[in-house]
Write a structure and sequence with these properties.
Elements lengths: L2 H8 L4 H8 L9 H8 L5 H14 L3 H5 L3 H13 L1 H9 L20 H11 L15 H25 L3 H34 L2 H6 L1 E6 L1 H4 L9 E8 L5 H20 L10 E2 L12 E3 H10 L3 H7 L3 E5 L1 H17 L6 H14 L17 H15 L11 H10 L5 H25 L10 H10 L11 H23 L3 H7 L9 H11 L4 H12 L4 H18 L4 H15 L3 H9 L1 H13 L1 H9 L18 H14 L3 H24 L5 H28 L6 E7 L1 H4 L9 E9 L5 H20 L14 E2 L12 E3 H10 L3 H7 L3 E5 L1 H15 L6 H18 L17 H15 L12 H9 L5 H25 L10 H10 L7 H23 L3
Parallel strand pairs: 2-3, 2-4, 7-8, 7-9
Antiparallel strand pairs: 1-2, 1-5, 6-7, 6-10
């Protein structure tokens, strides 16, 4: 390969200059392959090569590192290729080339702020342990030492930043360390300023004056850029001096800080120290006492100043004084949203910022342009200020943490938060890389193609070998800006924020005519009935009514997106009336668009959820937080049940609480399911765990009832069967069970049997009997023991020995099949282990005879012929129909009976796990197993959807278009896709049936 082609492949832009520098004598002895391996790591190989040659000229020993393998030389090439300015710094100060004597880490650790402070203070010969450090050197000597130490810190950070595996993930840490480094530099500058002020005033007077430096903006938020003005506010404390004298000294100290940081010197200044955010801006005194600050903010501050104070943080000087300043202003920040015109003034300020961008820069702006960083920051800060007054979890200074908190609190939808966070990180990364190259304060996308090409490489992580074309960079940037702007317009200008800020609003009353017309247009079937609900919600002058008038135009649209908006509106009215003026409910509707929308969609798409929310309206609070919708584990539910039972010994009271917990958890699972937070498999597990907790509670209550008349004589075990045993139940499932008992020591079998019968009879009645007052909207858990030996003619409960005798002498193959689902769920653990040891050889036999196989096939055919409801369409019956649940489950169970004795991976009570295992063992073709799993999941989903939509269990795919539409939506189909959904189910089930017949019957 020619040298020119090699330069092009490595990413060089100026081939002539590249060839000239490659021929430089400074590179003699460095193998070209090694050199190119290093240069290919650089964002700009042109810059890396030129800086390398100049550095070796000044410091020949660097040649060894340049000639080393890339494991050692990676930091060198990455920094020189990303920053000409840092290359220039190292040329001026080759003594700091040891910054490259490190091993690049893909997951670097940030440097502690205290360590940075120590380093910077020592650079000016100040004592870091002193309460008010004073530098040992002054003038240009101190300034140059401070700036050199600071830039060495930037080099160290750049190494970590450029070698981090995921630059977007590491971006917040970069901003934080840059802010800490700036704070350390200001601390050192203050030490120099104190030394210099001691020449103008007496050292004792200077020592008596306290000065706290409050970082504002990005520095205060610990999200600083590589080069940026550092916004500050100065707070002075007089000590024993007169106010005027202390103010003069404080002003001298503040001025000295700026001089040390940015005045002309051989080592260039770092950045501007900008105090224009202080009270009265440039017109006000440079320093103020804490009391003066308090007075100003209480009487004169404008709305934008409170927004600025959101970022205020002590970065240098007297920490105690700074802490008192923070304590004084922090409450003012969070009460500021109640000021008249607050929201409008912030929005107007944002528009002015956008309007003041020079036309030539508008399309290149990363920070201030449409869809830029400021859109994200203003949106997030306004949401924080509006909602943070009542929600302390939102009180974060930095943007990424604030976005996460807003998402966690439900104030921004998860998708919006993720998009905002990603966009913000990406835009900040662009800004960092652009500024790092020359260490110049700029927020503009470069125009030159060579700079864009280097930038496109610089934003990638070190594990990427790509060198994207500038067009790809520009396309990603433009896409990010569009996303930010859409989110900004939707969230920032929401009219709801006016209400949230003022806690009142101008009446946006819907006239009867306008409301009725809108309702009809939205698809409400009974506009007059809906209007009555609206009138009931908006009547009066209460805060609730005013808020409802503000929200209803939005809520009605969300309700109308559901299948039954009329039912949804009725449920919304009932919930609103039940919750009355509950502050959290009104706050959720007002502040959390995601939660309000989720509520509307559920109410208009689910009779089950609507019914449950009407009787448990407090559960609406879960909608604002996905964390609250995480199903409780069995252990957590049982702990709660046991706790309540310990305080409520009376059986009826105990069972009321147990059944209420079950109702609550079914609702939680349904809401999480509706929100897309649970897969179908997870729904079955969560519901089964809820039933298990209730059954265990009923068992304990039953034992308490029996033991009240005498001692317990037996241990009872409840064994789940069927889909309950497989933890694959739906919202309308009964609990199929077996009951096992074992006499306790000292008691005869007969008396133990009698007591066990009493206990199991109590279990069933406790779970199903009506209570007074009734538990509204309860889905009663029916316990069915028909799968016991001898069925309905057999004893309800048997001893372990009786089961052993029965299975040894009388059991049939269908009973072995039923035992495949057996899973102990409540009772004595040792008895459970013994029962499993008893049944495992039965359900997992070493082999299955042909006679037994024929019997299973015969029973399956009989079930299809006799149990399918009269007139039912086999193609639409979810359980017993063609390719339905029964087909898949019987096929899996046949394979288990045939092969689980030899293959332990088939020994599970679920359906899908052995299906996958069978494919892995070659008992099924992988494609067939995948198809059967798809059919089973879809049928299970539809079965649950039937209950969710109507509140009633049904095993039939709906024929009604409206019902089918509702079920299709629950199954993830878009509006109007019911026919496609129906066709998909019929197609999948037909194909599943073909696989079933091929494998089960051998056709």
């Amino acid at each position: 390969m020619s040298l020119a082609r090699r330069l092009i492949a490595a990413g060089f832009s100026d081939l002539e200059k590249g060839e000239r520098f490659l021929a430089a004598p400074e590179l003699d002895g460095i193998e070209q392959d090694v050199l190119f391996a290093g240069l290919q790591l650089a964002a700009s190989p042109d810059a890396a090569l030129q800086s390398l040659v100049r550095l070796i000229e000044k410091h020949p020993d660097l040649r060894k590192l340049a000639a080393a393998d890339t494991d050692r030389s990676e930091p060198l090439y990455r920094v020189l290729g990303a920053s000409e300015a840092l290359g220039e710094f190292l040329i001026r100060h080759p003594e700091h080339l040891d910054a490259f004597d490190v091993t690049a880490s893909p997951e670097p650790l940030p440097t502690d702020a205290a360590e940075l402070r120590l380093h910077l203070l020592k650079s000016v010969h100040a004592d870091p342990t002193a309460a008010r450090p004073v530098a040992g050197i002054t003038g240009t000597e101190a300034y140059e030492a401070l700036r050199t130490a600071y830039r060495r810190g930037v080099v160290d950070l750049a190494v970590k930043d450029l070698c981090a595996a995921d630059p977007l993930d590491f971006m917040p840490a970069v901003g934080a360390e840059l802010a800490d480094l700036a704070g350390a530099a200001i601390e050192a500058a203050l030490a120099v300023s104190r030394a210099e002020a001691g020449e103008q005033f007496s050292p004792e007077e200077v020592a008596d004056v306290g000065l706290a430096v409050i970082g504002m903006g990005k520095c205060g938020a610990r999200e600083l850029n590589y080069i940026s003005d550092v916004d500050v506010i100065y707070v002075v404390e007089n000590g024993q001096l007169e106010d005027a004298r202390a103010s003069s000294i404080g002003t001298a100290l503040a001025s000295g800080i700026s001089r040390a940081i940015s005045s002309p010197a051989r080592e260039p200044g770092l950045w501007e120290v900008d105090a224009n955010l202080r009270p009265e801006g440039k017109s006000g005194p440079l320093v103020r006492t804490l009391d003066s600050h308090r007075s100003y903010y209480a009487r004169w501050a404008e709305s934008w100043e409170f927004q600025a104070l959101l970022k205020a943080r002590t970065i240098a000087g007297d920490a105690d004084l700074g802490g008192r300043y923070e304590d004084a202003v922090w409450p003012l920040v969070w009460s500021s949203a109640g000021r008249d015109g607050f929201v409008e003034s912030v929005q107007a300020m944002r528009r002015r910022v956008t309007e003041h961008i020079p036309a030539a820069e508008e399309q290149r702006q990363i920070k201030l342009g449409r869809g830029g960083l400021r859109d994200v920051e203003f949106t997030v800060q306004l949401l924080q200020l509006v909602h943070g007054k009542s929600d302390e979890s939102l009180r974060h200074r930095d943007t990424t943490s604030a976005i996460a908190a807003l998402s966690a609190g439900g104030y921004i939808g998860r998708a919006d938060a993720a998009a905002f966070d990603h966009a913000y990180r990406y835009l900040r990364l662009l800004e960092h890389r652009i500024q790092l190259f020359q260490l110049r304060r700029t927020h503009l996308m470069p125009v030159k193609e060579s700079l864009q090409r280097a930038l496109a490489k610089a934003v990638l992580g070190p594990f990427s070998t790509d060198r994207p074309h500038p067009d790809a960079l520009m396309a990603t940037w433009q896409k990010t800006k569009r996303s930010v702007r859409e989110l900004h317009d939707r969230i920032f200008y929401r009219p709801l924020l006016n209400t949230a800020a003022k806690l009142s609003s101008e009446d946006a009353r819907l006239t009867p005519e306008a409301a009725q017309g809108r309702l009809a247009a939205l698809g409400y079937r009974d506009p007059q009935g809906a209007l009555r609900h609206i009138e009931a919600l908006t009547a009066g002058v209460s805060r609730r009514a005013a808020l409802q008038r503000q929200l209803l135009p939005i809520l009605l649209g969300w309700l109308a997106e559901g299948v039954d908006p009329d039912a949804g509106l009725l449920a919304f009215r009932r919930i609103s009336e039940a919750l009355g003026t509950t502050h959290w409910y009104l706050g959720m509707l007002r502040d959390s668009a995601a939660a309000a929308e989720r509520l509307c969609h559920m109410l208009s798409n689910s009779r089950l959820i609507a019914d449950l929310l009407e009787v448990s309206p407090e559960s609406v609070a879960w909608l604002g937080s996905d964390k609250e919708l995480t199903p409780l584990s069995f252990e957590a539910q049982w702990h709660e049940i046991a706790s309540k039972m310990s305080r409520h010994a009376e059986p009826e009271n105990a069972m009321r609480l147990i059944r209420l917990i079950r109702r609550r958890e079914i609702l939680r699972v349904a809401i999480a399911d509706s929100a897309g937070l649970l897969a179908q498999d997870q729904v079955g597990v969560a519901l089964a765990e809820t039933d298990r907790a209730a059954i265990l509670g009923a068992l304990r209550v039953a034992e308490n009832i029996v033991s009240a008349a005498g001692p317990l004589k037996t241990s009872v075990l409840v064994v789940a069967m069927g889909r309950q045993g497989g933890r694959e139940i739906g919202y309308g499932s009964d609990a199929d069970v077996l009951y096992v008992h074992r006499a306790l020591p000292g008691y005869a079998d007969d008396e133990a049997q009698q007591q066990a019968a009493k206990i199991v009879n109590h279990i069933s009645s406790l779970l199903t009997q009506p209570l007074k007052p009734a538990i509204m909207a309860e889905r009663v858990l029916t316990v069915d023991a028909d799968l016991r030996p001898e069925g309905k003619n057999g004893a309800m409960v048997r001893s372990l020995e009786s089961y052993a005798e029965y299975y040894r002498r009388w059991s049939l193959v269908w009973e072995a099949q039923a035992l495949l689902r057996a899973r102990p769920i409540a009772g004595d653990d040792r008895l459970a282990d013994d029962f499993l040891r008893l049944i495992n050889p039965i359900r997992y036999p070493e082999s299955l005879s042909e006679t037994d196989v024929r019997e299973i096939r015969r029973i399956k055919a009989r079930v299809e012929a006799e149990r399918l409801p009269r007139g039912a369409d086999p193609a639409r019956h979810l359980k017993l129909g063609r390719g339905g649940l029964s087909d898949v489950e019987w096929l899996v169970q046949l394979l288990q009976l045939q092969h689980a004795g030899r293959h332990p991976e088939l020994r599970t009570t679920s359906t899908l796990e052995p299906l996958q295992a069978a494919a892995g063992l070659g008992l099924l073709e992988a494609a067939d197993a995948e198809l059967l799993a798809e059919a089973w999941r879809l049928a299970s989903r539809i079965r649950s959807a039937n209950v969710i939509w109507t509140g009633r269990a049904s095993d039939v795919l709906p024929s009604s278009r409206r019902d089918l539409e509702a079920v299709a939506r629950w199954c993830g189909y878009e509006e109007g896709m019911a026919t496609a959904f129906e066709e998909n189910y019929l197609r999948v089930s037909r194909r599943a049936r073909a696989v079933f017949e091929k494998v089960f019957y051998g056709h």
